[in-house]
Amino acid sequence: MNFEWITTNWDVILDLAIAHAGLAIPAIVGTFILAVPIGWLAHRAGQSRRWRPARASIILLTGVLFGIPSLALFVLLPVILGTSILSSLNVVIALLIYGVALQTRVVAEGFDANDNRATEAADALGYSRARRFWAVDLPLAGPSILAGMRVVSASTISLVSVGTLIGVGSLGDLLTAGFQRNFPTQILVGILATVALAILFDLALVLVGRLVMPWRTKAGL
């Protein structure tokens, strides 16, 4: 490990870490915004015999999307979107697709696992469907959704590095440059910085979970 190189290039490492986070954050937030309603629709469809094939189709489609090779998707998106191949938007949208594909099933199963007694009690109290969703359904499914988002976060942080191969800067730059120069320190710093960023994001999600679901902390969950 060449510590002199690390201290000399600390500002570069920090800039790449910020760029890495800047690509991951909108993808993770967008995943939550899109996956919750899609997963809820899949859950609702599964409750009706008539619409169960729709649920199966949603789950199947998201599974297929997650199976697309990341580099192929990064290259294909500029053709579909009409953007420059060097645009960071391609990476963000690709990460968003993978995040939604990974999280939709988790959200649907989280809603499936809700205690029917709680929802029936809300119905008996005259809750509208919208009020029941925000006051009962979503809070009950919250722990499952949070667990899924933590997986999405780790996956997203990891996949951001692939964007380096199409010229979008991130901590992946350290990996590719290190391999090209046969410089293990640069490779190791890239790996450790990526892991540290993933841990930081995970801790942030845990903190958000404690803030929006304080009853989990009181219950020791």
From TrEMBL:
The chain crosses the membrane at residues 12-42, 54-74, 80-101, 151-171, 183-208. It is a multi-pass membrane protein. Residues 17-204 form the ABC transmembrane type-1 domain. One of its GO terms (biological process) is glycine betaine transport. It is found in: Cell membrane; Membrane. PROSITE patterns: ABC_TM1 (PS50928). Keywords: Membrane, Transmembrane, Transmembrane helix, Transport. Coiled coil: none annotated. GO terms for cellular component: plasma membrane. The keyword Transmembrane helix applies. It comes from the Bacteria. Belongs to the binding-protein-dependent transport system permease family. This is ABC transporter permease. It comes from Corynebacterium heidelbergense.
